[in-house]
Write a structure and sequence with these properties.
Strand content: under 5%
Helix content: over 70%
Number of helices: 4
Largest sheet: none
Oligomer: single chain
Radius of gyration: 18 Å
Distance between the termini: 33 Å
């Protein structure tokens, strides 16, 4: 399943880039990030539901939900990754933005792990 979805994702990434950002009143990338967040959040929840299906039904459910999760992720991540390139013409500033992006991402991940793991023990 992982390989099949990754091959599908390899096709989706260039497709998303070709659909690419267009200029409108709120910016090039903002609509994709804002409107992609809702399906991404929903799929993050739906993907881990445990429906009462047959074994084959569960497998199909896993393929479909995991595939849709990657479509939603692609719709957010491609514009988000390209955002730094239009935020500043300076290479040094883009490097600094990238460093802050990853520091905040890892800090958020660390906080989630520290807050969720104790809940599991309770």
């Amino acid at each position: 399943m992982m390989v099949a979805i990754r091959v599908f994702d390899a096709v989706m990434d260039p497709t998303m880039e070709s659909c690419g950002p267009h200029e409108d009143e709120v910016g090039k990338f903002r609509p994709y990030i804002l409107w992609g967040a809702l399906p991404y959040g929903i799929m993050g929840y739906v993907m881990f539901l445990n429906p009462n299906f047959t074994e084959q039904g569960k497998l199909i459910y896993a393929y479909v939900t995991y595939g849709l999760m990657w479509v939603a992720y692609t719709a957010i991540n491609i514009p988000y990754s390209a955002l730094m390139g239009v935020m500043s013409p300076s290479s040094e500033q883009r490097t600094s933005l990238s460093a802050f992006r990853f520091i905040c991402a890892f800090a958020g991940q660390f906080m989630i792990v520290r807050l969720v793991v104790p809940l599991k023990k309770a």
